[in-house]
Amino acid sequence: MLEVCGVRSPEELFAHLPEAVRLKRPLALAPGVSEYEIVDYFRKRGDETANGYASFLGAGVYAHYRPVLVDTVVARGEFLTSYTPYQAEISQGTLTTIFEFQTMICQLTGMDLANASMYDGSTAVAEAALMAARFTSKGGLLVARTVHPEYREVLKTYAKNQGMPITEFGYDPETAQADLDDLERKLNDLTAAVIVQSPNFFGVVEDVSRVTEMAHKRGALAIMGFTEAVSLGILEPPAADIVAGELQSFAISPSYGGPYAGIIATREKFARQMPGRLVGETTDTHGHRAFCLTLATREQHIRREKATSNICTNQALIALMATVFMSVYGKQGLRELAEQNLAKAHYLAGKLKPRFSGPFFNEFVVSAPNPEQINAALLEKKIIGGLPLGRFYPELTDAMLLCATEMSKRAHMDRLAEAF
Amino acid sequence: MAIKKVRPHISPNEALLFERSSPGKKAYQLPDLDVPAVDPITALGVANVRKEIEGFPEVSEVEAIRHFTRLSTWNYAIDHGMYPLGSCTMKYNPRVNELVARTEGLAWAHPYQPESLSQGAMQVMAALESALLEITGMDAVTLQPAAGAHGELTGILLIRALLEHQGNPRKKILIPDSAHGTNPATAAIAGYVVENIRSDEHGLLDLAALEQSVDEDVAGLMVTNPNTLGVFESRIIEAAEVLHRKGALLYMDGANMNALVGIARPGDFGVDVMHLNLHKTFSTPHGGGGPGGGPVAVKKHLEPYLPVPRLKRVDGHLAFDYNRPCSIGKVKAFYGNFGVLLRALAYILAHGGNGLRNATMDAVLNANYIRKKLEPFFDLPYTLPNMHEVVFSDDRQARLGVRTGDIAKRLIDYGFHPYTVSFPLIVHGAMMIEPTETEGKLELDLFIDAMISIAKEIETEPQTVKTAPHSTRTSRVDEVKAARKPVLKWTPASP
């Protein structure tokens, strides 16, 4: 090969690089190691974490059982090691699963169309806000304080340079639902979108229909975010204009915060504003059903600076995990799973007395004069307690957010309750 | 015509899951509840409880596994063979990385679990940060961005934050006409106006044009290096000086970093901020379109603006620092695509410094070998030495009515994934080929044979090429029809 290239060593192929740019020493990295040593290294790192603890953390990331089929499917090299399906003739596997994914997300959310995935729930909500601004040609964003605090942080980063001022509205201290009177006061004709999350950060189900009506009266769109996708198995599909959320609950490992998969689903009339990839049905030259990426004129590789988003790589393999999860649980299973979550959380809540009265799914807030102290005591029992809320809500330094899922065992819940 | 690599075999048909479903079938089993059941209507209120999810699948476990296995066989993948998509760096995805990503204490780590119980995960991040700094020659890095384009956005927001801090965010971002589409889309989302600058006759950054364009309104230049022709921007240091003199910054798109690791470091040639694509250079799987990882590395002057939180060491432990008043904020919830970061670290550990450099040299050697072998058959409009990829034009074949897209489709019949088609835009009918270091001479020769064979077919039987592929279960798909009347989800056939 060197001879064909007309050089004596591979180094000569770099001879054209200016002297000044070249690295004149070896990289100061440890020498390469064997497969066994790599496994060993990560096993040790894994042992330096919360291995063997029962956990009651939720707050946007949930511990749900991952059916074995999920990893069986995503470990297949045909899915794992393929690129974005631009070459439709040899990508029908990926394209078909994305089409099924889009369909299932529509069935779950009651929306007309869903995209192939966003990076995560937080960026999905931010991109949904940009969609609303484009459609309404307005910029104001009204965001409930009950939306995940980190999602609101990301929204700020995205909106800041788009001329999109963000105003937050509060929550009812009794129910922990969004304060609709506060929303009414703050809504105006410059509002592009009202953003709520349901179940909200405190686990409480919001009145999304009412929020949507209020938004529409002022020519704004209603965006519903969600972080706990299992709730869609039992909750009425939202009446919102755009649904933007996180599918981590669908067999995606918590993995210290990612990779997860976000989604945006919406009504037909907003299709041209949709960011990200979409798969559509068509036929091949023999008339067989086939799928391909479509409506690409919205996207960066065609539209460049006029694109609906700069997103390119998304979360395809993670979305496939969710697709397999939805297929395994199916119509009955997702409902049963949601009911189990509801039962577990309500069992725990029955022992602890939630702080707020709003209806909740699998998370709720409890009062605790010193949440950190309780958590420290729980750690002694190999239990990770709830998330102390003072970090995100200065008025809730005496409260923590607890979550129970189908994986929470009664014995652990009993032990947790004893600590209060 | 001689197709050496493949011959057809049976391919199973498979309906959509929804068409396979029948009521009552299930592929799951939940444990019996160990707590009392709760009536949803009592707990949530009648208005909040949904009816059944109409159309949702109902299949058995065997049906589910067969469904996805059958669909998988309709894909081409790196595991099948060479995947020479230019600028996509489709290299082998080591399987040990998949295994270690599933290590219990890491895969199940909750982002809000106490830092004292997260040290292992945080160490993985710290180790990757320091390796990436050594590789790039930069001063600080954030692992938060989820993919390349997300990294670009983070990088441009950093530039904006620094300039704002100095009193004026400025108005424009300069982008060469050879750039990837994400660059201009990113600049627009960051609130900048995009100004394109033309490449010179060699396909390089035109320094004179740059000098003319840079004024007090220019915030920065986004440049890919090596550029999308696979050519190193040899005057990058001068370009950085031109920008810096006027207070503008140099952003480097690191999509093509596979040509530089161990050879040259952006931090040593004037780059202020750059992103890396872990799913390209550092072998994490593309997974049919993600997940990715887009760390952003910066020089010292941009460090105060990096997203929160930042990893820091306190008394021998790792901790997250949120107290960063100049930070641009968060670009994503939590800390980044940790599972992807972990795989990238595994790749770096396996290779070590020398191994990474060897990979770069193999990647560049492979691209040059392909160039030499194919140059007699295809036009090469830009002839400067190339690095990890080579871009031909279809000019010679187009005269016979066959375009780059046709040749790409014909490659499929020969058992290869196509190269990148019609990009970069500065090459007429571009055929952008990136073999990566993964391929050995055997696979490269098969690819070269296939390309030469197709070049000959174009002279004798162009119609065969123009209607390819012929051996796939799906022939050319009607993309126009898909876009004209979009069908974006399955609906039951009307009775």
Describe, in plain words, how this protein is organized in 3D.
Chain A is of the alpha/beta class and 420 residues long. Chain A folds into two domains: 54-66 and 331-418, Aspartate Aminotransferase, domain 1, CATH 3.90.1150.10; 69-324, Aspartate Aminotransferase, domain 2. Chain A is 36% helix and 14% strand. Chain A has helices at 2-5, 35-47, 68-74, 77-80, 92-109, 121-136, 149-159, 180-186, 208-217, 300-303, 316-352, 371-380, 410-418, and strands at 54-55, 113-114, 140-144, 166-169, 191-197, 221-226, 242-246, 262-266, 279-283, 289-293, 363-367, 383-384, 387-388, 399-403. In chain A, strands 2-8-7-6-5-3-4 form a seven-stranded mixed sheet, sandwiched between helices. Chain A has a three-stranded antiparallel sheet with strand order 11-14-13, covered by helices on one side. Chain A has a two-stranded parallel ribbon with strand order 1-12. In chain A, strand 5, helix 9 and strand 6 form a beta-alpha-beta unit. By secondary structure, chain B is an alpha/beta fold. Chain B folds into three domains: 17-72, no CATH class; 96-349, Type I PLP-dependent aspartate aminotransferase-like (Major domain) (Aspartate Aminotransferase, domain 2, 3-Layer(aba) Sandwich), CATH 3.40.640.10; 353-481, Aspartate Aminotransferase, domain 1, CATH 3.90.1150. Chain B is 35% helix and 11% strand. Chain B contains 16 helices and twelve strands. Chain B has helices at residues 17-20, 40-44, 61-72, 95-101, 104-107, 119-136, 148-165, 182-189, 207-213, 236-245, 338-374, 395-398, 404-413, 441-460, 462-466, 479-484; strands at residues 140-142, 172-176, 193-197, 218-224, 249-254, 273-276, 296-298, 310-314, 317-321, 390-393, 420-421, 430-433. Chain B has a seven-stranded mixed sheet with strand order 1-7-6-5-4-2-3, sandwiched between helices. Chain B has a three-stranded antiparallel sheet with strand order 10-12-11. In chain B, strand 2 (172-176), helix 8 (182-189) and strand 3 (193-197) form a beta-alpha-beta unit. Chain B starts with 16 loop residues before the first helix and ends in an 11-residue tail after the last helix. Chains A and B meet through helix 1, helix 2, helix 3, helix 4 and helix 5 of A and helix 2, helix 3, helix 4, helix 5 and helix 6 of B.
